[in-house]
């Protein structure tokens, strides 16, 4: 029987968010397949570089410790190239892949080409629950 679940080494990612992603709950029996699927789900998050688990036997049952190592999630971008008319064009942007510590991606870019354009997007893959999210993009 699982008596305690601990999340450790998370700095920017919220503990409540990580807890909402894992299937294992206090009071359940210990299941190694669930532990492995939880760690795999955590590793697939953009803000998490590596995840692992530890199982400790206590007097009350099993204590599960999930450990995470986080990625640097603010990524700038800059591209330049030439157009068909031999003019220089560029695109500059920035993206944050773990906004608010909840796995929300926010980004924007500006493109200077024959026509100026810009775009912005937000993606919250786990906005409603761990299976349903929302993404909105705007581009001119």
Automatic annotation (TrEMBL):
This is Uncharacterized protein. It comes from Nonlabens ulvanivorans (Persicivirga ulvanivorans). The lineage of its organism: Bacteria, Pseudomonadati, Bacteroidota, Flavobacteriia, Flavobacteriales.
